[in-house]
Design goal:
Elements: H1 7-15, E1 44-51, H2 71-84, E2 88-92, H3 112-115, H4 120-125, E3 129-133, E4 141-145, E5 149-151, E6 159-160, E7 173-174, E8 185-186, E9 190-200, E10 203-213, H5 226-237, E11 252-258, H6 274-286, E12 287-288, E13 295-296, E14 299-300, E15 321-325, E16 329-334, E17 363-368
Parallel strand pairs: 1-2, 3-6, 7-8, 10-11
Antiparallel strand pairs: 1-17, 2-4, 3-4, 5-9, 9-10, 11-15, 12-13, 14-15, 16-17
Helix pairs in contact: 5-6
Length: 369
């Protein structure tokens, strides 16, 4: 998520004269009987989705826009993540190794001071994870604990910074904050996927792990980014003219990430994201299998409030960060939004580290598979 600072103003302007449309239970994506597609493995899996970017968009010789600059903050988050020990982690807005090439004034406080000799995700997770990133920008990375599964094409405990299957942008690229509009795709946005193999009863069980960080809107430029985002979500579930769907009907599918989309906020048919809402309901709540075996239903495991609303992950306003599956049961919690403390709870910010502060809450799930 970028430009969070103007998000609240946009929401207030946008909803001022609109009345929310009544929702059905399907709109709120009640848990589906997804485990019926596969025999349960009798395993537990801990899943984390963490957007580790921030809301600082300035870029110059000392800073990479939207990315983590403070080394001490990164080290604090690393200790927290390693103590939680997720089996699977999706990191969005990672500071890639080549991003530091233009940083000429880095000092010892800056992540780029030592980034060229170690990958940011490796520093965050330690040595017990295999790591793979998207094939276009390397901003989006997955980490899988070596005791849980191996990533196809990656040596256990190894790293492949551009090995994930990554479809091309469905529309012409643009640079966020410079020339993007409703018809274009932010060049940094992506959806990607890998296949994991879980060791279970001396067999390897395939699992399709899909990482979503589709197109964002820019509320300062006043567009919602729905066209490209809708097409990228389509690349996950139904594919496109240029690529097969990232999900595989013959495998268990786990989808995690920052979708830049809140399925619970819907207004009148004047809503510019009306088609996106319909697409979400179709893909998540009742997608049809190509095999003809009936509707493939995905569960959304996102945490809910006691009132049944999705817990927010952005500034107490929106829920953009989701975990979906067609095989697991269980739910997620938003760190800092309920029973769990925030990922950076207890860190002592100063004027230097403040601009690296995460602008998303991290999502943590304990699921039965």
């Amino acid at each position: 998520m970028k430009r969070q600072s103007v998000l609240a103003a946009f929401i207030l302007f946008y909803v001022g004269d609109m009345v929310p449309v009544a929702h059905s239970k399907q709109d709120f994506l009640t848990p589906a009987a997804s485990q019926a597609y596969f025999e349960p493995l009798g395993l537990q899996i801990r899943v984390m989705s963490a957007n580790i970017g921030n809301n600082t968009g300035e870029e110059d010789a000392t800073y990479v826009a939207w990315r983590m600059e403070s080394a001490s903050y990164e080290q604090y988050l690393a200790r927290r993540i390693q103590s939680i020990r997720p089996d699977v982690i999706g990191f969005q807005e990672v500071l890639s190794q080549n991003a530091c090439d233009g940083i000429t004034n880095a000092d010892a406080r800056h992540t780029c001071f030592y980034n060229k000799n170690s990958h940011a995700v490796r520093r965050l997770v330690g040595q017990d994870y295999s790591i793979i990133c998207d094939n276009r920008t390397q901003w989006e990375c997955l980490a899988v604990h070596v005791d849980f599964a191996r990533i196809d094409g990656v040596k256990k405990g190894g790293i492949n910074i551009r090995g994930a299957e990554t479809p091309g942008l469905p529309e012409k690229p643009c640079t966020y904050g410079v020339n993007c509009d409703e018809t274009l795709c932010d060049e940094d946005s992506s959806v990607s996927a890998v296949t994991l193999y879980i060791e279970n009863d001396e067999q390897e069980v395939p699992l399709r792990l899909i990482h979503a960080h589709p197109n964002a809107g820019d509320f300062q430029e006043f567009y919602v980014g729905s066209l490209c985002r809708r097409e990228q979500v389509g690349q996950i579930f139904i594919g496109s003219a240029d690529s097969a769907p990232l999900m595989k009907a013959e495998m268990r599918n786990l989808v995690i990430g920052d979708f830049n989309y809140d399925p619970s906020i819907r207004f009148s048919t004047l809503d510019p994201m009306f088609s996106e809402h319909r697409q979400w309901d179709s893909f998540v709540a009742g997608m049809k299998e190509e095999t003809g075996e009936g509707p493939r239903r995905f569960s959304i495991h996102s945490a809910k409030t006691p009132e049944g609303k999705l817990q927010t992950t952005i500034a107490g306003l929106l829920t953009f960060d989701h975990v979906l599956s067609d095989f697991a049961t269980g739910k997620c919690d938003v760190m800092g939004g309920g029973a769990l403390v925030g990922l950076d709870e207890g860190f002592q910010f100063d004027s230097y580290s403040e601009k690296s502060r995460l602008d998303h809450s991290t999502v943590l799930c304990d699921l039965s598979i």
